[in-house]
Amino acid sequence: MAAMLQPQIILLKEGTDTSQGKAQVVSNINACTAVADAVRTTLGPRGMDKLIHDDKGNTTISNDGATIMKLLDIVHPAAKILVDIAKSQDSEVGDGTTTVVLLAGEFLKEAKPFIEDGVYPQNLIRSYRTASYLAIEKIKEIAVSIEGKSMEEKKSLLAKCAATSLSSKLIGGEKEFFASMVVDAVMAIGDDDRLNLIGMKKVPGGHMRDSFLVNGVAFKKTFSYAGFEQQPKKFLNPKILLLNIELELKSEKENAEIRLTDPMQYQSIVDAEWNIIYDKLDKCVKSGAKIILSRLAIGDLATQYFADRDIFCAGRVAEEDLRRVAAATGGTVQTSVNNIVDEVLGSCEVFEEKQVGNERFNIFSGCPSGQTATIVLRGGADQFIEEAERSLHDAIMIVRRALKNSTVVPGGGAIDMEISRFLRMHARSIAGKSQLFINSYAKALEIIPRQLCDNAGFDATDVLNKLRQKHALGTGANYGVDINTGGIADSFANFVWEPAVVKINAINAATEAACLILSVDETVKNPKSESAQGEAAASAMAGRGRGGAAFRGRGGRGMRRR
Known about the structure:
Heterooligomeric complex that forms two stacked rings. The protein is an alpha+beta fold. The chain has helices at about 20-40, 65-70, 80-90, 95-115, 120-140, 150-165, 175-190, 265-285, 300-310, 320-330, 380-405, 415-425, 435-445, 445-455, 460-470, 500-520, 525-555, and strands spanning about 15-20, 50-55, 60, 145, 200-205, 210-215, 215-220, 235, 240-245, 290-295, 310-315, 345, 350-355, 360-365, 375-380, 405-410, 480, 490, 495-500, 520-525. The chain is elongated, with a radius of gyration of 32 Å.
């Protein structure tokens, strides 16, 4: 009786929402499965695209898992983890973002019946980690190196990897055309890791086959003053001067007071300002440069001055473009025109201004450093060009990774089926519950070939049975889904390749995310604190409003109530 009368212990603030135990783990799994379902249909060459319309009225059409995950405004705390792994896969490898979300969702889906039956999550987590370690070792064992090949062979192999990445994108119909362009762009920047050395310029209009690669720098014609049209638009082997100063007639900004006794003295001050600008322009001309680019404005006076001396100039060049011109031409950006020596001037074989669509582009090609490239993209709609840019970004990342970690694995679900078979065989040698858990992990890996079939409209069960039989024989490790016929085919022979690092990263990240979500058994949500802050702010505003009203009352008409 005494125990019943004991007061209830209140630990958390009133109104706190707590959910814990098995139900919470299952709820988190359901949320993650819902997120995976959102991107499920975008996987593979026959994947569909998503149209996302945000509150600002922007419309995005995309097939890229990371882009879709970023644009989905997910509020569920556990499901946000899937957004994070998609972002990390995108920044680390560039491709496989849909794969990583699908795998994580499927691992959790397979774990759900065990959790509902009362299995302790830590046992599942331990088995999943073991399975992930075994899977990654198996990938490393199967992977084929592309090291030691000639440059031509290497280019061809890298183009195959890029084409595999592009096949699932909106521009998949022209994958060979873009794959060779991507490989040339990556080869142009050499060992440099900075992605911003590959520029992408979008010009609406034309066909996507009108896109082209510039082995150098291309940027849109900047704002220009009168006199610009008189300047030459093509040079062979010119010297290039890069500046970060204004070449404009400016009144001096000193807040000094000058007292004049004679009007002629005023003229001398005006003349001094003109002399300063003419001195700067004269030094630019004497440097021997035929092309002058500046990050800041080049005024009408300077434009005409250079036009009279057959020099091309462009002001207000974007900083990123100026940096790429510096990297390509071997020039150095100057902050002063004094003492310009030949060492700071850049050079290129050909400079020309060219019409692309309804835009004019300044193009520097045949650069000595050759450490940069520019892809000019053409296409009908803006959304289409933006999606093409995202697709090429993925392909560029893939080619860079394949160059650095030069091992590739068969795509089209072949590697997933082979790991799945290997894990099933391994599970039989284990006594205890973890045999079931590793088996469920192996089954989850089959989601990739299954989804490829579903998205292409094939009978997934039929194709998977053929694949299981082929892989079980031990000779069909490279067999995956054949998207064209609806059967199975040797992915390696069909050049459906992807860098091993993509798969390793995807399995690592998906397993980590699944284990993290399984290890959370309680969520504490405290909406009171948020509303309390809101109420405090509202009451402060109301108090200020009342104070203001009272103040106004005392000042004017309210005097008679004294």
